[in-house]
# Entry
Amino acid sequence: MTTETHKDIAKYRQIYTSVHEDITNGRYHFGQQLPTDMELAEQFSASRPTVAKALGALQKQGLVERRIGSGTYVRYGRKDRQLLNLALLIPGLGETEIFESICGHMAHLAEEKQFNLVWSGSMADDAEARRRHIEQLAARYVQQKVDGVFFAPLELTSEKDTVNEHIVSLFENASIPVILMDRDIAAFPNRSPYDLVGVDNFRIGYLMTQHLISQGCRHITFVARPFSAPTVDMRICGYKEAVNRMTSTTDFDNAIDVHIGNVDDTAGIEALLKRTRRLGIVCANDTHRRPPHANPQPPRLFHPRRRRRRRYRRC
# Structure
């Protein structure tokens, strides 16, 4: 009897300590249901009364709530606790589908992980108007004292490097962490000190070129717009690597051909298409242009406690 009592006490402390740490360390979040008493009993090889005693002690401390016929739910961290305010700053919002998908997924995470999301960007066609709008948004985020910013650096303008450096310096001087999205603010192959979330652009350029070669193209041209992001330089490197790896033969032209031009220059594009037969074109990027009347919208705060999923589409 005595030995059994000591074993029960040891199991009780083990269960109490383990669940307590899981709650306070964030493994279980506010409102989340804990494993059932039976599941915990199996996990810790303990009796159900011992599990109930441990959960009862956690309930007395206000960490959990025991609901008859329903289960045990986490009460640690009040709903009115201060939530993190994270901001998205995306100059090209609306130009490509990828950023709207990313914004929608992050809005979903805001509800799941319990943080506020300030979501905005610029959809202005004019580069100067876009630059002004992005700088104004950055200054506004500093005034709002957001807890962190996800920033897709400006591109396709001769002032992009200066503007991007200015924006990240605003956040750095305000002690606001910055994570870069899709592209760096430093020219390839250099890297800035900021964390970057993106794709393997070198491999993308290589695979696109390799695909065109496999389809019978005998001259490959890489086409990009002026003042593109460093990601385009990385794709050009991948394109060059794929072309250089092709053995020089009579029917394949392994000359490097990078064309930088305006997408609205129809005459230049027509001339490019007439240059050679069996031509393959690797485009640096695709774009989705909005109608001229699509004006940029003010930043919107997504609050995780407002469950209106229609707002996830775009701000």
